[in-house]
Design a protein that fits this description.
This protein is an alpha/beta fold and 318 residues long. It has helices spanning 10-19, 38-48, 63-68, 92-102, 139-149, 162-167, 179-191, 210-215, 218-234, 239-247, 255-263, 273-291, 293-313, and strands at 2-3, 27-31, 52-56, 78-80, 87-88, 108-117, 123-126, 135-137, 159-161, 193-205. The chain has one domain: Spore Coat Polysaccharide Biosynthesis Protein SpsA, Chain A (Alpha-Beta Complex), CATH 3.90.550.10. β2 (27-31), α2 and β3 form a beta-alpha-beta unit. α5 (139-149) crosses α7, α9 packs across α11 and α12 crosses α13.
């Protein structure tokens, strides 16, 4: 758990993690030279619970580098890359750990997420139309789920194999806030993913968060997208690149995908007709949510119902 000046949030994050049933064997917190009350808050938890291990950077190193410099300190086989401003729900570890045991070959395990808007105070569960029961998706089944059912998983919901992270060389710093997308899908397209169809973790969204600040930098967003496109291509077997292309995953970058390919035309082979169609659709929906929220939400609700029917035909729902 990297932290920089989140003293007003990290207490709730640690409390939720340590107080959950079947909690983690350890919580490694890397303070990135905070200037607020963060260290005293973390040290207070460390005195009460020996599972909390605090490491302090002498100078600010950034999110990815902070994690990478201490990744070898982790003792478990799986790693949950937590954010200091997010928090897990009470049954998070109780539900996720058995899934890891039941599907030991899976590259990661994931669940649905909840987003808390710090500005409005409203929260929203992001349910998937994929299934109503825990299931394992092989790499090729994941391709079909993304392409046919618009399945996806946010990085704040994932347990990933520590060995996979070390094999990647840690978090790719060039991908910045998009690094989680690359790491998680790379592991899933190699070894499959176990999925739990319940909301078990909450992400805070606020104008001051790391991802929000990067999201406002239009030109700065392109470099990480290019790095991800290049990274999938450079995976040794070539199977990951084939699966990424077939799944239409990169359509999630919306117009940034086109900007990235315009600047780096060597990646135009990602642009299948379906990817182009979906990227434009997703951008239109994103804009529509701001322009006409009621109509857009009704349309997306209809779309979700159609996807659910399709997933039942594929045998994902009971």
């Amino acid at each position: 758990m990297p932290n920089f000046n989140h003293g007003h949030y990290i207490g709730q994050s640690l409390e939720a993690m340590l107080g959950s049933s079947d909690g983690p064997v350890e919580v490694i917190v890397i303070d990135d030279a905070s200037t607020d009350s963060s260290v005293s808050v973390i040290e207070g938890f460390g005195r009460r619970d020996s599972r909390v291990r605090l490491f302090r950077n002498a100078r600010n190193m950034g999110h990815q580098r902070s994690v990478n410099s201490h990744l070898t300190e982790a003792r478990g086989d799986y790693v949950f890359l937590a954010s200091a401003d997010d928090y897990v729900l009470p049954s998070f570890f109780e539900r996720m750990m058995p899934a890891l045991c039941e599907h030991p070959t899976a590259g990661l395990v994931t669940c649905n997420g909840r987003v808390l808007d710090e500005v409005t105070g409203e929260s929203k569960d992001f349910d998937q139309p994929l299934c109503d029961k825990e299931m394992f998706l092989s790499p090729d089944a994941l391709v079909e789920a993304i392409r046919d059912l618009w399945f996806g998983f946010p990085d704040y919901t994932c347990f990933i194999k520590r060995a996979s992270l070390l094999e990647m060389g840690g978090i790719p710093e060039a991908m910045r806030s998009h690094a989680g997308v690359y790491m998680n899908y790379l592991a899933a397209f190699k070894d499959g993913v176990a999925y739990i169809p319940d909301c078990l973790v909450t992400q805070r969204r606020a104008p001051t968060t790391y991802a929000a600040r990067e999201g406002r930098d239009r030109d700065g967003r392109i470099g990480p997208v290019v790095a991800i496109l290049r990274g999938f291509k450079e995976e040794k077997s070539g199977e990951v690149f084939r699966r990424v292309k077939a799944s239409t995953l990169v359509a999630g970058f919306r117009l940034d995908l086109f900007r990235a390919v315009w600047r780096h035309p060597e990646h135009r082979d990602y642009l299948s007709p379906l990817v182009v169609e979906r990227a434009l659709f997703m951008d239109a929906v994103g804009r529509g949510l701001r322009v006409a929220p009621k109509g857009t939400r009704a349309f997306m609700a209809l779309h979700a119902r159609l996807l659910t029917r399709k997933s039942r035909r594929l045998g994902c729902h009971t």
